[in-house]
UniProtKB/TrEMBL annotation:
SUPFAM superfamilies with a match to the protein in the record: beta-lactamase/transpeptidase-like, Penicillin binding protein dimerisation domain, Penicillin-binding protein 2x (pbp-2x), c-terminal domain
Record has Ligase as a keyword: no
Lineage: superkingdom: Bacteria
Subcellular location as annotated: Membrane
UniProt KW keywords: Membrane
Gene3D superfamilies per the UniProt record, alphabetical: 2.20.70.70, 3.30.70.2110, DD-peptidase/beta-lactamase superfamily (3.40.710.10), Penicillin-binding protein 2a (Domain 2) (3.90.1310.10)
Domain PASTA, residue spans: 587-646, 647-704
Pfam families given in the database record: PASTA, PBP_dimer, Transpeptidase
Record's protein name: Penicillin-binding protein
Family: Belongs to the transpeptidase family.
InterPro entries for this protein: Beta-lactam/transpept (IPR050515), Beta-lactam/transpept-like (IPR012338), PASTA_dom (IPR005543), PBP_dimer (IPR005311), PBP_dimer_sf (IPR036138), PCN-bd_Tpept (IPR001460)
Amino acid sequence: MLIVYGGLFFAMFLRIFIIQASGQVEGQVLAAKAAAKYEKSKVITANRGNILDRQGQTIAKDTINYRLVAVISPDASEGTKNLMHVEDKEKTAKILAKYISMSEEDILKKLNTKEKNAQGNLLRQVEFGAAGRNINHGTMEKLSNEKLPGINFVENTKRFYPNGIFASNLIGLAQRETQEDGDSKTVGKMGLESIYNKELSGTNGSVNYKSDVWGYLLPNSNKMVKPAQNGNDVYLTIDKTIQNFLEDSMSKVYKKYNPDSMVAVVANPKTGEILAVSQRPTYNPQDGSGLENSWLNQLTELTIEPGSTMKTFTLATAVEEGKWHPNAFFQSGQYTVLDRTIRDSNQVGWGPISYLEGIQRSSNVGMAHLLKLVGDDTFVSYMKKFGFGEKTGIDLPNEATGQILDKWPINRVTTTYGQGSTVTPIQLIQALTAVANDGKMMQPYVIDKIVNPNTKKIVKENKPIIKGKPISAKTAKEVREILATTITGEKGTGQSFASKEYEVSGKTGTAQIPNASGGYYWGKNQFLYSFLGMAPVDDPQLVIYIAVEKPKLSVTQAGSEPTAAVFNTVMESSLKYLNIKPEKNKKIKSKTMDNYKGQLVEDVAEDFATKNVQMVIIGNGDKITAQYPAEKSKVLSGGTVFLKTDGESKIPDFTGWSLRDVLTYQTISGANIEMKGEGYVQKQSIKAGTTLNANKKIGLKLKKPEDYYK
């Protein structure tokens, strides 16, 4: 016995000695095992940086939400005084149904589930799908106050976009993503969220401490805290108010005309700052709806044949080179280059006309004659000076360059009026800043500054950059005045872009769209309609480009209508918001009314389409039976003419109508209209397009102009 016990004691002593000497048992380090058991670490999650507009208003930020979890296994309550699982399932289901979008019956099924996990054991807890996710803090607190045993919440961080569709293709989106280490992190997937993911991403902190087996902090142990570093805040040049003007107008036009696509951008020509940008189709980053139709950022990644908006820079080249003679004449209609012939939009021209009338009528042949005067090489060099054919350098990736075709003589001719060669919307905006900013062409940018929220220090700040001076201040002023006549002139193609309060300058565009067979689509509903403009003419504060591809136009609608609807609304609203005073003593053109009774609506519509007069047709007949204003009366440019026909009428979209126009419509149509407020119509009770019923009341809410900008 002595030998046996002595041998065991010696073996135990030897084992202890080896463990003390090596610190290991069966290859496992004991110190590490002890640290794992008693040394605890807790992650302090860093917030992703905010994206804000130029005024500091939130565009994207992190928010806390919660996921609902129900513990259903009775095992969770064993050995405890309090219930830790759902015992009264009927009561729990009834209360939960008040707070989440799931029926009481479906909740009860979840709580009574007999499903098993991968190990073949009954589930210990259940969740409630989409209905139990993204629960806000207020709902979580209310549910917590119900004190339901077994009902728990798991805290999550989610990216929040409070404005929904708001420059979405620029801002992009960020989503929670599981990392290789199993941790969950918000990662930028598109747009600025992706481009500046590194700057926006914070660094998690931690708390390290020693505890006993029950998790209590051990006496005299040190608690080491490493603070989290939140991600940097990115301030944009975007102005939330102007962006909202643009989004609202784009949505209305997109719904009304159902085009294939739209893109619009508003910029400050003095600095190059992008104040608003939008496109259709687009998506809502909050719920991801529309993502399948809208990946491309059309501002920088879309190349287009710009159409007649390019004539702005052909004109500027001629003026700068001293080759612009507004009162000289040329033969319009067609122009032959070697074996190729180009034609004006109406195919036959207008006979011998002046160059000024040529730019007002948007004559392609006039541009060809200007090219001959300027010279091909000089013209191409100016296109490069205006930045076409190369990236603008805007602080966004994947910028396309477009291409100025100049290999063959016909290429150079068609480029003068915007066909063949390609550009991007942002290139057009950059080039126009030279005309609007007295010759100084400004590089566009969207990032104002990046700020470290932990230290409040500015990490990066952008300043205006002059990209070049392709034309003189004198030329720029003259070009603005010439382009203003395309809007105010009797023969101008841009009359529908006239403002009642500001003098506008700009150029319309109607571009053919290439098809897959190498040719071009043709037809009224197959063009890219656009406008590149600025205001006020004397000292432009804003430049805007708007393009609408293949809008669905009726027989009486002109291609300029959808682009004008966006431009006019956004330009006027934005200038007023920026406190740019309307120009005084402005001469407003007027038109004397003819007698249209008995004429066909289609014929009259073509006449009014070029007169900057809005036409409201009451009834669905072919011939006009009544009109307002009456024959020989004056109607101001930008005013409204009412034409009555036989047949049933559709209720129009009254948004933006003046009280006077509403009263006129009521008198002619016999509609039963009740109005509240003063100024201009903001809302209507019956949807536009509904068949007019004289016995059914239409409610209209009006607001004064100054109330729109509060």
